[in-house]
CAAX protease
Amino acid sequence: MPQTLHYRPVLIDSLISNERINSYQSVFHPSNDVELMGVYLWNAHVCGALYPLMGAVEITLRNAIDQALAADLGRFWWASGKLRYRSFAPGVDAPHPVQAVRDNFAKATRNYAAEQRRRHAVRGNVTPHHHGVIAKTEFSTWEFLLDAEFMGRGLIWPKHLSGVFRGPWPVHQAGAMLAHVHDLVATLRDFRNRLFHHEPAWKRYGVLTEADALQHLQEKIGKVENLLALIHPENLRLLQANGLLRDAHRACTSAEIQRFQHLAQVHQIDSLDVLAELVARSTQENSVLTARLHSEPQQSFLILPP
């Protein structure tokens, strides 16, 4: 039972720290340590539900850009001199987004070579492999490539914008579209970093209540949906068909917080009709229900949507 665990001084004070847990206290206002630890574990659950969405964003974005540019500029399109930019001037340093792209690809190439030496015992110089280098790039690479420095006549944008973003555009002008997707990617990259560094996924300036936190998370899921649909609607349909979007939306609800706080209602099942009703309700509401057989009062189980 959760009440038997040593929350203090072991779990909260020593293994998690009061500094990290205090933000949960101030926003969610749990009445005891069981509820406090519940909302902390709920955050980990949310991060797990959002992880495949963020992975889909990063992978599909980088592959869409890479395929379009490789077809036009060659497989190593990021090599020196191939990737032109708007403010180029002889003897003048490249602006930050351009230099960041160069640095990221240099780092990705080094990391690919190091992995080949470490995992495959390759000696001497390592010949770069296109897909190997692309796989080692950081998410920020693709945000920087969407900068306005690469927008203009003879540059990669707007030339390849419709090839990378094949879904319905929310705006008609290429410049506005580039700015729109750049902002989406920047927002989601910042959010992704928060998730991957085990920080509170819901935390942001202005989030003061549980309702604020849930709204913030649902907004981020909406941005994921928007970006994936812009790259190609099939990306979104894949996540929908396999329940990943449904799972993410469900994770970011008050009902799930209460479940992790051991506050959820336990439904007693004493007939197949009651079980069928609960299964139908779980599916209709996209909710996880806690149930218990009348004959086994000490054992609970969960009913999840299909």
